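$ fold --in a.seq
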Amino acid sequence: MDVTAAVVDGFDRIRGVVHEVLDDADPAALVFRPDDQANTIVWLLWHIARVQDDHIAAAAKTHQLWTSAGWHERLGSPFDPSATGYGQTPTEVGTLKLDPELLRGYFEAVHETTVAYVRAQDGASLERVVDRRWDPPVTLGVRLISIIADGLQHAGQAAYVLGLARRDAAAGGRCS
């Protein structure tokens, strides 16, 4: 397996968890919060797509799909178009209510763009510096692995919150 195929596999793994969560979650579960400081499933999945869209667009020197393809408007996001979720307050997290199929559409568009971009790279291009704000500067390869790590972490959190929502519903709580 070449390195770009391994990176694509990482992004495909995020996609698999995102689809499992969206396929299994009912509308109440998507906005369930174990407490008022916790992230919702819909926010976690939106954040995965936004960060990936933002970082891949920056690396590829293209426009983000969120704005260029009109996803911000289609999804009716309450946030500034530049928001990716970093630094948002718990109150802001609680305001995000998105249609799950539109969210899936946005995630899929980002995933397809990401995979096409990664497949166009080679080992040498993964050494290209894409962010000089860090010491050492961040290469494309490191940035891609960072996006995968963040995406898998948040996808796992979404799956965990779904489990908590189901337990809550079974106990006659907010999700029942």
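$ fold --in b.seq
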Amino acid sequence: MFPHTAAVRWALIRRRDPLSLAERLVRDIYNILRILFALNCRWEPEWKWIEYVSANLAIKPERLVERINEVSSVPLLKRNVAVCMQLICDTLLLVPLEYDVTRALNTIQESLRINNGF
């Protein structure tokens, strides 16, 4: 929701601070999962089971588990951030209209645009 929150990820890349970046990306992934489990009216599982329990979620972005794994396994930090932010956008697009996530979605999309997708 706050523009500086998204911008921090790109700044950490420029500063060559992969540990701080990894911490933020993990928090982003947990927030994505919390939204998805809430949208599906399901309790959050132990995260180590995410591959198995996410298979049964009716509402989720395409290739959820593969994209989560890509965030932590791609050796290019810019690509990690871009994949994570696109997953955030795809998740927010699944949120019902009664919950206004427009500002958050616009913030992430603008951050991606400014940084050319990565």
